[in-house]
Write a structure and sequence with these properties.
Layout (H helix, E strand, L loop, with lengths): L13 E10 L5 E11 L4 E5 L6 H8 L7 E6 L2 E2 L5 H11 E5 L10 H10 L5 H14 L15 H13 L5 E5 L7 H16 L3 E5 L3 H6 L2 E6 L2 E7 L2
Parallel strand pairs: 3-8, 3-9, 6-7, 7-8
Antiparallel strand pairs: 1-2, 1-4, 4-5, 9-10
């Protein structure tokens, strides 16, 4: 990962310029259609829209999991849409943390081992992985549950482990895809509080959500329809 930038030196953390993405063969579907937006350090943004509006496709482009057919994606100042798979993987490992609706924890590993897994592909040695994973679990209020396996944790606790795994690499950008979708209201509120705290600490956070209450509570709401950005609203 030599040559990657210090994420604190670049703002906005995420910038999309005229981004489009099509899928299919003879009759392609344009899932993302000429989208331009940016997300700054310390900003928390709701990404909303009906099913099929292009949210998942756009999130994949934001997270360097996919590349656009047209337009540019910059993460921490790096033009990731021009990169090959190996460099994009390095960008994801260095700059991006992911949180999903399903927790994607390995059932045979403890909480601290699951969190430390987020550093495995960054070349961090085992002792440092453990120390940083402990610190990340402490940050999400799970220091006393560090040795518990997923089956021994509640749904809300599992999602907090997943948030800790996203944070352990100290990313510049956190992408959360329906992070409260599998949780009850109390556990969901706890996870959203954590994501707001993460933004307040200087990380850019994008939250995909169908929950209108969550979307209206965040500082900015980006609305997609048929792959196009139809509204980008900042709360007063």
């Amino acid at each position: 990962m030599s040559g990657l930038l210090d994420p604190g030196a670049v703002d906005p953390v995420l910038r999309l310029t005229g981004v489009s993405r099509e899928y299919g063969g003879a009759l392609p579907v344009r899932a993302v259609d000429d989208v331009s937006l940016s997300v700054a350090s310390g900003e928390i943004v709701a990404l909303v829209g009906a099913s099929g509006s292009g949210k998942s496709s756009l999130l994949a482009l934001m997270g360097a999991l996919d590349v656009p057919d047209r337009g540019q994606v910059h993460i921490a100042g790096l033009a990731v849409s021009a990169m090959g798979d190996r460099l994009r993987s390095a960008v994801r490992a260095r700059y991006i943390g992911f949180v999903f609706q399903q927790f994607h924890l390995l059932p045979t590993l403890s909480a601290v081992e699951n969190v430390g897994l987020g550093l495995l592909y960054s070349g961090v040695e085992a002792r440092q992985r453990r120390l940083r994973a402990d610190a990340a679990l402490d940050r999400v209020g799970l220091a006393t549950r560090r040795r518990h396996r997923p089956a021994e944790l509640s749904g809300g606790e599992q999602q907090r482990v997943a948030v800790a795994r996203a944070l352990v690499g100290e990313p510049a950008l956190v992408l959360a895809d329906e992070p409260t979708g599998a949780l009850d209201s109390e556990a969901g509120a706890t996870v959203m509080h954590l994501l707001r705290e993460i933004a307040q600490s200087g990380t850019a956070v994008v939250v995909v959500t169908h929950d209108r209450e969550i979307a209206s509570s965040l500082g900015r709401r980006i609305h997609l329809r048929d792959g196009r950005l139809v509204d980008d609203q900042v709360r007063a």
